[in-house]
Amino acid sequence: MPELPEVETVRRGLAPWLEGATIESVTLNRPNLRFPFPDGLKNALTGQSVTHVGRRAKYLLIGLSGGATLLSHLGMTGSWRFAEHPIDKPPRYYEPGTEPKHDHMIWALTHPAHGRSHLIYADPRRFGFVDLYDDLSTSPYLQGLGPEPLGNEFSASQLAAAFAGKRTPIKAALLDQRVVAGLGNIYVAEALHRAHILPTVLAGSLVTSTGRPKKALEDLVFAVREVLTAAIEVGGSTIRDFRSVEGAGYFQHNFAVYDREGDPCPTPMCKGIVQRIVQSGRSTFYCPKCQKAP
After folding, report:
1. Do 129 and 34 contact (CB within 8 A), yes or no?
2. 125 appears as a binding residue in the annotation
3. Among 55, 58, 243, 260, which one carries the catalytic annotation?
4. DSSP of 22-62
5. PROSITE patterns from the xrefs (predicted)?
6. Is 194 part of any known ligand binding site?
7. Between 1.20.200.10, 1.10.8.50, 1.20.120.1200, 3.90.180.10, what CATH number should domain 156-286 receive?
8. Are 3 and 187 in contact (CB under 8 A)?
9. What is the pLDDT of residues 30-58, one digit of tens each?
10. Which residue has the higher pLDDT, 280 or 85?
11. I need a surface site. Which of 140, 177, 230, 287 has the fewest CB within 10 A?
């Protein structure tokens, strides 16, 4: 599934072209994605202007002039793409590897600065979905989410409060969206490696007896921010199907440990070999030499 950096990359690609645009018409080429399209979606979108393009965790949030918000989850292979943009590249309606049959929703847009364009939602596997809310706070997908890992509320103290006494492995604890929103399997593995923490240690072991964060937990918060920021700067890529709005993506070659079983650990002076284990049914990659228990 696309993780936070991928969704943020899509948001940043959409915003300059979509904010301020008016949706002239909407074409739905099928009745559903993972779930049926919301009733009356075409009429609800047509004639609306886009006020902002936001993100919460792994969800895109497209605000409309009438007050409603469209929530979009990309699933495994979903993508939003402009037919005509970016303007400094030749127009390309279909990205490599896609077919017209996968274009499930198309918006015809008019923008005061950029003119007419078409925004396409394509999704070969149809694991993505969209929903529409007059009041975004009622969305069950957003209720109970923890703080954003790049926001001010995310801190070692916040994690210490969540992890105190917890006997869950640290990797699983970080994947709990109630603790921190938007982290996924790949970037958790990368952050734990950067912070030199074994993925199997108990989350509670990173907290002192008085409830304060140990240095390892402070290092982990810093590592999470670094890994996510670096991924966003590069453009994001978690799976081969990912595309940003401009067809970019792919930086698996920059991963330190993810999907690198058997490779030498890239940490300077470390002679470890990246290993793979399975935790909660998901692959975990780590270096047994430089990743330690606190």
Report:
1. yes
2. yes
3. 58
4. EEEEEEESSSBSSSBPPTTHHHHHTTPBEEEEEEETTEEEE
5. FPG_CAT (PS51068), ZF_FPG_1 (PS01242), ZF_FPG_2 (PS51066)
6. no
7. 1.10.8.50
8. yes
9. 999 999 999 999 999 999 999 999 999 99
10. 280
11. 140
**Secondary structure of residue 106 in the 3-state scheme:** strand
- pTM of this prediction? 0.88
> Could you state, in order of their start, the residue ranges of all structural domains in the chain?
4-138, 156-286
Describe the strand order of the beta sheet including 103-111 as a list of residue ranges.
22-28, 103-111, 115-122, 79-82
Beta strands in the chain (DSSP E): 22-28, 50-56, 59-64, 69-73, 79-82, 103-111, 115-122, 129-133, 275-279, 282-286
In which band, very low, low, confident or very high, does the pLDDT at 240 lie, cut at 50, 70 and 90? very low
Candidate from 46-60, 75-89, 95-109, 111-125 with smallest mean pLDDT: 75-89
**Which one, of 10, 72, 63, lies nearest residue 35 by Cα?**
72
Is there a catalytic annotation at residue 3? yes
Question: Is residue 289 among the annotated active site residues?
Answer: no
DSSP characters for 157-183? Answer: HHHHHHHTT--SBHHHHHH-TTTSSS-
33, 75 contact by CB (below 8 A) = yes
Q: Cis before residue 86, ω within 30 degrees of 0?
A: yes
Specify which residues 81 forms β-bridges with: 120
89 is in an annotated binding site: no
Element (H, E) at 227: helix 215-234
Question: What is the tens place of the pLDDT at every residue in 126-143?
Answer: 999 999 999 999 999 999
Please give the CATH superfamily to which domain 4-138 belongs. Answer: MutM-like, N-terminal (3.20.190.10)
Q: How confident is the model at residue 98 (pLDDT cuts 50, 70, 90)?
A: low
Distance (Å, whole) CA 155 – CA 3: 20
